[in-house]
Amino acid sequence: MKAIKYVSADEAVSHIPSGSHIHLSSVASVPHCLISALCRRADAGDVRDLHFHHFHTEGPAPYSEPRYEGIFFDQGFFLGPNVRANVNSGYADYLPVHLGESQKLYREGHIKLGAALVQVSLPDEQGRVSLGTSVDCSVAAVESADLAIGVVNPNVPYAYGDLLSLDQFDYLVQDDTPLVTAAFAEPTPTEVLIGKNCAALVEDGDCIQMGIGALPNALAAQLVNHKNLGLHTEMFADGLLRLIKKGVINGSNKAIDKGKIVASFLLGSNDVYSFIDHNPDVLMRDIKYVNDPFVIRQNPHMKAINSATEVDITGQISADSIGTRIFSGTGGQVEFVRGATMSEGGKSITAFASRTNKGKNKIVAQLNPGAGVVTPRADAHWIVTEYGAVDLYGKSLQERARLMISIAHPDDREALDRAAFERFGPHWHSVK
Question: Which has the closest alpha carbon to 34: 58, 64, 13, 4?
Fold first, then answer.
């Protein structure tokens, strides 16, 4: 391995020209030292019109703030809380894309990247580095960008899967800032009920996908007595790590990547990050592979478990927005929905509380005006709330409405029934 020459963050970003589109490694592994250096350039009046692209990012997001209007413009593929308000006030923007296709935007030149800014692990003996907790579309970004800048950080775990070579970077920067962590979210009593209803749909030997947060943790807690589960998922966190350490998740029944845990990005505690470090049982792969429905379908009995902001009585699933207000993004929901339903014995499961924390119903007669339909009604299968689980597949609109009303909050059912009568006419009440 040749000697590594490092430069300062300010020196590295000084080579990014105005007008560039910039990729950031995301979630827990945002290269904040490079962002800070770009802010110093902006404050000095040295750069303008930089466009940022990324999955959701943790930590400060000055590239979305009004003070940098005309200098930075954020166009993320998925929103986190740090940019949500600025996107919905117009100072930043959301670029709709299935996360599995985000890499395609770079590789096919739909977004011509001027720079890729990523964090990587310490190199191995061959000069290879890992993107650690944030592989996502960063491999494609480094391959496609005019300029690749790598922040070598000893806190980035060396995860097997899709690796990079130091030779692929134009500039290297040293930093030892810890990765962002997320505390384990304890489920509420409602989420525990939802977890139990979901767990009843998961059988021994299934391969599962789910995200992070209190609801996935609640489901994970209900799977402790299952056996030989597999894991092929965009991301995982502490709830699933507990199942891995208990041997519940071992991948022994997987048809591809047998015995391996496959993911593309992570957000959790340092225990999660330490677990993947030099662990041959974990593969952190390009989002092109992880989210490909034709890869997902190869594992039999795939159970994809996703969430929603609201679902109408015909099964239209909104997950990226609340009305016109963008909340998160399309993510990989549709990719895993399709992959799971194409899998032999697979199921797509959409799980959510029947009401929001403020008491607003999430099973609705019609989606809020402007709400994005992330999963079309034709792709809706199992819908789960704390009041039960229903399968919409193969059901007509009226049959679906009856099923959806049955798992709505009891106080919302009468109004939903009236709305269904107005929609479907007198026949609605003649046949049960």
Answer: 13
Q: How many folded domains does the chain comprise?
A: 2
Q: How confident is the model at residue 68 (pLDDT cuts 50, 70, 90)?
A: very high
16: left (phi over 0), alpha (psi -120 to 50) or beta: beta
Q: 255 and 357: one domain?
A: yes
Say whether both 68 and 156 belong to one domain: yes
Strand ordering across the sheet containing 171-174: 93-94, 72-76, 50-53, 21-24, 113-120, 147-152, 171-174
For residues 329-357, give the mean pLDDT. Answer: 97
The verdict on pTM exceeding 0.90 is: yes
Percentage of the chain surpassing pLDDT 70?
A: 99
Catalytic-labelled residue, pool 65, 234, 335, 386? 234
Question: Given a cut of 90, is residue 344 above it in pLDDT?
Answer: yes
Please indicate, yes or no, whether residues 199 and 308 belong to a single structural domain of this protein: yes
- The CA-to-CA distance between both ends of the chain, in Å, stands at 72
414 is catalytic: no
Q: Residue 15: is its pLDDT beyond 90? A: yes
My answer on whether 221 and 155 are in the same domain is no
State the CATH number of the domain containing residue 138: 3.40.1080.10
**Residues 118 and 208 both lie in one domain:** no
